[in-house]
Design brief:
alpha+beta; Double Stranded RNA Binding Domain; Arc Repressor Mutant; 2 domains; about 15% strand
Length: about 130
């Protein structure tokens, strides 16, 4: 998935800023353009992950030409951030894990107290991470 980004120019006294207009509040900054772009990839992935976890829908990417014509981005450069489609995949997958029996007993007890299955409890703990 590709989202357009607006890049605020940096200089000696100001970091580069990168905004993903389609993902409200998603931005990054860096002393170099490479740092700012790397940061915005992480920020966009985190934004999407949090939105999906909350049951939200992802907005479609805007047209890059339409973004270039927005007055708030006058003097900025433009590009795209490409996100791995795997971050959108909620397909259930069976896994096999190996744990010491004593750890498994604790895991199952905690899952029961939380009213979850073992798999559900592991998923919830991971998402809270």
């Amino acid at each position: 998935m590709r989202y357009p980004v607006a890049i605020e120019p940096g200089h000696a006294d100001q970091a580069f800023g990168v905004v993903v207009p389609d993902l409200p509040g998603c931005f990054s900054a860096g002393d170099t353009l490479d740092e700012a772009m790397s940061g915005v990839e992480e920020a966009a992935a985190a934004w999407i992950d949090a939105t999906l976890d909350a049951g939200g829908a992802l907005p479609p990417p805007s047209d890059l030409d339409a973004l270039r014509n927005r007055p708030e981005f006058a003097g900025w450069s433009f590009g795209v951030v490409t996100l791995d489609p795997a971050i959108l995949d909620d397909t259930t997958e069976r896994v096999n894990i190996t744990l010491p029996r004593r750890v498994l007993e604790r895991l199952d007890a905690q899952a029961r107290r939380a009213g979850e299955s073992r798999s559900g409890y592991i998923a919830q703990m991971t998402l809270r991470g």
